[in-house]
Structures are given as C-alpha cells and as structure tokens.
Amino acid sequence: MITVNIREEDEFIKLGQALKKASLVGSGVEAKMVIQDGLVQVNGEVEFQRGKKLHDGDVVSYNGETIQIVK
C-alpha cells in the first residue's frame, strides 16, 4: 500500500494529484485518461472525476496498487 499525505495547510488532495504523487501516472493528462476510462476506484467505487476531493482515510485503487490518503 502506498501512502499519500495531504499537506498540513490543506483539507484534501484531488484524485489526479494523488495518482501523480504516488507515481502511478506520469502526468495530469495520463491521470485524466485512466480516470475517464473508469480504471480508478475511490473507496471501492469507480470514480470518473479527476478533481474528486480525497480526504484522510480515503482509499484509491488503480492498476493493482492501493493508495491510502493520510492527513
């Protein structure tokens, strides 16, 4: 499991940013494509919004990898 930290001053991180921060995609464009293709799940549900706000405790799954969002 990969851990992605939300910056101290922020309440959330966006889905596309989390995928990039976890090094699961190389760019925002790549993040947009995999999300639009329905390949990313947030808390067990397929998510199609790149700008989906992720909060502490959310779990993202993509390409066999799991990301835990931590504040």
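[next item in queue]
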Amino acid sequence: MTNQDLKFPEGFLWGGAVAANQCEGAYLEDGKGLSLVDLLPSVEHGRFEALMNPKKALETNYNFYPSHDSIDFYHRYKEDIKLFAEMGFKCFRLSISWPRIFPNGDETNPNEKGLEFYDQVFAECKKYGIEPVVTINHFDTPVGLMRDYNGWASRKTIDFYLNFCETIFKRYKDQVKYWMTFNEINMILHVPMFGGGMDISDAENPEQLKYQAIHHQLVASARATKLAHDINPENQVGCMLAAGATYPNTPNPDDVFAAMEADREGYFFVDVQARGYYPSYSKRLFKEKNIQLEIADGDLETLRDYTVDYVAFSYYSSKLTSADPEVNQKTDGNVFATLKNPYLKASEWGWQIDPVGLRITMNAIYDRYQKPLFIVENGLGAVDKVEADGSINDDYRIDYLREHVRAMHQGIEDGVELIGYTPWGCIDLISAGTGEMKKRYGFIYVDRDNEGNGTLERKKKKSFDWYKKVIESNGADLN
C-alpha cells in the first residue's frame, strides 16, 4: 500500500479531545458552581469509594481534589490552543461546563462570566481555523441537581438541560457547528454518579432507576437535537458511545450470545438516538429486570422524529466475555469488566491494546446505523519520563496511535463514512477514573504530579511532531 493510498478523505477533521472537568480548573472562579468531579478526591484518597457512594462524596472533606486546579486550562487556553494550532488541528473537541453556565443547574438565567469564557475560547479557535466540537454534558451535571433532584432520575432535569442547551446554542450559534448531547451516554449503567448525576445506593430496584434516568436523557437528547436544528439548520448533532467490540471467549454458542448481549448493552442507547425507537430486545430486557418506564405523552414521537446526525464514540480497547460465571475473572483498569485476551498486550493500567478491534467496531456501528461516524476519543494512558535534556520520548504512544490510524483507514476502505478523529487528552489532564496525572495521554506534557505539585509548564513530547506530520499529510505519513 502506497502512502497516497493511506490518505484520508478531503476535509477530514483531525484534532484532539479534552473535557472541561478534567482540564479547566478554576473550580469556583467567576461564579462557577460545583461539578460532580469537584467532590472527588484523588485515587490515593478514596476516589473509587466516593464514585460509588455519592453521599460520602457530598459529606466528606478530602485532602486533595485534582479537578480544583487541574491543568489550569481556564487561564492558559490561549497557550494551549496555540500549541494545538502548531500541530495543525482541524478541530478541537471540548466540553462546556454546565455548572460554569448554571451554577446550581436549575437557574433561569445563566452566569454571564461563564459564557464569556467560552466566547474567548471559541474566538481563539477561530483565530487558527480550528473547528470546535462541543460536548454538552461531559460527566459534569451540577452538584446542585444531584443534591436537590437526584440528577437524571428526575424528569425535571430534562427542562434544566434544555435551558442550558438553548442558552449555548443561541450564544454560540455562529461559533459552533458540531455538538454532542452526552459523553459516553452508556456510562450511566456503570458509574451512575458520572453518567446520571445520581445516587442509586438506596434504590429498591437500581436498574429501574437507571433506565428511567436513561429515558430522560434520551428524550432530552432528541429535544436538544430539534432545538439545535431550529436555532441553526447548519448544526450537526451527534450522540456519543463508549464503544469497543466484545469477543466471545470460545466458539461456544453461549459465549457468542453473551458477547452479543454485551454489545447490545451499549447499542441500546444509539438504537434509540440514531434509529428513533426502543429496540425490540428491550422488551425482554425490561421484563427480566422488572423495569416499567414512565413514558410521558409525546416522548416516543420525540424520539422518532429527532434522531442524531452522526454517531460519535470513544474506543480504547476491545472486550472479552464468557457465559460461564466462573470463567469471568475480570481484569483491573477499566470500568468495563473483561477477560484477559491472550492475543493482546495491555497498557500499564490494564487496558488491552487492539487496533483491529477499532476496525471491527467501526464496521459494526456503521453497518447498524448507516450514519457518519466520528471517533472522538482514542489513546494510550502511560507514565511519561522527562529526560535530562528535557525530551519526552513516547514512542509507545506513537506506536499505539499509528496502528489505530491504520485501522481507521482500513475501516474507511471497508466503506465506513468517518468524518474525524480526536485522540483523547491531546494535552495531559486529570484522569476521569483515577484522578491521576501520571496516567498521561497527551502530545503535550504538563508539569504536574498526582498531588498537584509542579509548575504547569507545557512541553512537547515526541508524539507532538509525529501527529503534526500525520495531519499535514492527511494520514499518509505515519512514520
């Protein structure tokens, strides 16, 4: 295959991705309210326990909160966006902090200072010809909504969310074209605090509560899609899934069916958002989990009439499962439990590295929905070492990304319509799961450690120049 053969479609959106709650810092500055992650300590101080017990997070004063200062993108965005522009970014995926605009979440009027901040960020992007790709709700439902309404468990949250959406759709009408309604919407099943801003610990039937909250999010997503198109017909609205093909552990048909069910757990959300209706298999799912959704008049018509324009997803690894409970010894390192695949290597955090799995995932999603795809997260979390001369030789990250870009190209050759690629954590930031800084993804190193020490100086890694070449050549030069 020649280099010319490896080129991506004209206008392909190369870029990088971050989230407000993992990079901005300034956690109470200029009128911002508390985000969910602002309650969470670092992993050394009990982050996992707090994630699974929101009441504890609300009531405990921890020693160190990584998100409070993070990497201070709030004050350093000009420097960071300039570095993104130097790499040649065509787009930049970021999120708008909901509590920065509506501090408690249920206010009628927005916080002007918060809106002004994103005015400035988008203006800086425009200065360099970078297209913003904005996630509306990226694990930062305001703490006030969790405390006062139990987050997305309450139908009232739909209206609070739509007020937020209308505010930003109108304010940034001429600055933002690409939107995503929720980040990794299926994460609500695994970490309800992140995904739903809610506490399920006292629920008589936790599955009932989770799927009712999911219904509220799906209705909110559809209504937001309509709103975005009404305000600006040029808007493109996507849904976003934490994806990764699930393989059966053996050819045993029971294992094959278990793998299919595992994939359906995530596809459930996109089936509704992209097709416009609850899938046929949901009837059995709801029956077996004793779930009876409260569906308001007009909800099903809303889901039917306002489907998304594209399907975005994150991909870090594939998964492996068995129908035999005794075989299913889980690995550490990810919220998605999986068997260890003997054919794959794993990262330092136990995430199994599978570029072919990305091609499989692309084909599976595109075959299912026939809508444009956008890979908005992909990358390798690793410990990076600054050498004596100041260099950071992250060849392992280059190797990981190179093979995934090749897999993307194979997917495109297979007939998949792929519009863009934004590797995760294009600048080092706080890990969502662990709250660590040492788990780094970026092309740009940030001088900060797990305890919040460091100068916050930005340094280019070896991967910075590599990715710059990839973008310059539109994917042809991967050396």
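[queue empty]
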